Amino acid sequence: MAGGGIGIGIDTRTTLPLAVVATAAATAAATYLLTKRQFENKLAVERREKYAADRKEHIQEDEERKMKSLPSGTKLSDVETDGVYLWELENLGKYFPSEGKGIENIMSALSVAGKDDKHGDSRARYNVLVGDQECILANIRRKPGKTEPTVAYIRAGPRPVLHFNPATVNAAIVTCGGLCPGLNNVVREITRALYHLYGIKGNVYGIVGGFKGFYDPKTPPILLTPESVENIHHEGGTILSSSRGGFDIDKILNFLKSKNIRQLYVIGGDGTHRGAFKIHETCMERGLHVAVAGVPKTIDNDVDRIDQSFGFNTCVEAAQMAIRAAKVEASCNLPNGIGIVKLMGRSSGFIAAHATLGSGDVDLCLVPEVPILLEGETGCLPHLWNRVKEKGYAVVVVAEGAGEELLGESTEVDASGNKRLPQIGEYMKKVIADYFKERGEDATVKYIDPSYMIRSVPANANDTLYCMQLGQNAVHGTMAGYTGFSVGLCNNKMCLLPIPELVATSPRQMDPKGRTWERILAVTRQPNSRTFSRCSLLVNQRP
């Protein structure tokens, strides 16, 4: 190639006008673009035609299935259920004569205008009455090619047949353990359901101060009526007060007998539910005609089997104020501002995790289910250092039960037998400040503990609705004669569950290999320390 040409397919010995070369290149480019566009248009037409044909085929198949009374969709041949096992409940009708025989279950005490516009009561039929064998599947997830059995829960709701005669029902309600948003709501809804839905003629006793209130003369029971509970759902806490411990089965049963109690409603956590089941068993052993129902209550959301406990949503919402305060403190206090928020979570980090996800402002979330690694490649202290250097501040959320591998397991217990937890919040405040100081810088660390503030607020709208469903369905269950059960939301459906099965796997914990923890890592960008064994954490940890 002469003259050191650049090999572009043009003979450099031939001199062509520059305009001719440019025109040829432009023509070639235009031809290429036109051909490409035509090809893309052809593909687009083919895609549209294929989509239209597929839609037509799907619609035709759906119509054929509907004609055969089959659901729409594609039937999966390799997704099956290998048996459904119903968790049955004890029913007093097996052991005691029915007091409600022949009484139709219809809603009582609905307000109507009588003659001369005077107030009166009316009755109305339920839209849906639930059969005894109606159930909700526990495990609704299926994998192709894998068959496995599933348990099922009895569906909650009003039954066609009553076991108790509303005219003779006396009931008692007790709240036990720590406070939780929605306690007053549940008390209110049980009371209103008994009087307004079933029209009972007896008394509803509110047991004051937990189990001890059954027999302590200093805290006598109070009478609950629709009028006395009318506005209590606007208040936090419980009008019945609460306490831990005080369980004395003989004294409790003496009260039930003395007041001719037919229904007992126990609101509390897994320990309280074990006490409720003990009352149920002893009543059966001694021939007492009493239905015992539980309503799961736990601020930590750690009662297993149910979707979530009432009040949890409110607590997560209330925790946002503390996290926002920590962010303001951290971002406004120099140098190296860090805000720490300690939230409740004795053995489960659900509140801390969901508050972190709901906030979007948290840089480090520490929970009991995942060990805390302070230093090293995946340590939380280097992570905080980096976050502070990136944006000038950081926010930490820690569950109260986190860090046992650092501080050791406490041997002290409270009245309910729960371990007294070490002070992880103060510990983290100290080690963070020390870590920065060792690197020649000061850190301004602010520590906020809103633990009791977030559980003492009134229930929000979501929990108010949930509490209404819990209270009403607990009453529906006892009026049908069920006993030794608890009520809860399972797969977004209200169910009745045997208390022994409910507490068998409680307290539950968050899965550190699950999606919630995955989302925590994505939001906070913190390193994942769950892959480290507890023993390995003893290396390179601070005293």
TrEMBL record:
Keyword Transferase belongs to the record: yes
InterPro entries listed in its UniProt record: ATP_PFK, PFKA, Phosphofructokinase_dom, PKF_sf
SUPFAM superfamilies referenced in this protein's UniProt entry, alphabetically: Phosphofructokinase
Claim: Transferase is one of the keywords in the record: yes
Basic and acidic residues composition-biased segments: 54-67
Segments for region (Disordered): 54-74
Assigned keywords, A-Z: ATP-binding, Glycolysis, Kinase, Magnesium, Metal-binding, Nucleotide-binding, Transferase
Phosphofructokinase domain location: 171-476
Catalysed reaction equations from the record: beta-D-fructose 6-phosphate + ATP = beta-D-fructose 1,6-bisphosphate + ADP + H(+)
Pfam families: PFK
Molecular function terms from GO: 6-phosphofructokinase activity; ATP binding; metal ion binding
One Gene Ontology CC term in the entry: cytoplasm
Cofactors, names only: Mg(2+)
Highest taxon above the source species: Eukaryota
Entries under PANTHER family matching the protein: ATP-DEPENDENT 6-PHOSPHOFRUCTOKINASE 1 (PTHR45770)
Chain's role: Catalyzes the phosphorylation of D-fructose 6-phosphate to fructose 1,6-bisphosphate by ATP, the first committing step of glycolysis.
Protein name: Phosphofructokinase domain-containing protein
Biological source species: Discostella pseudostelligera
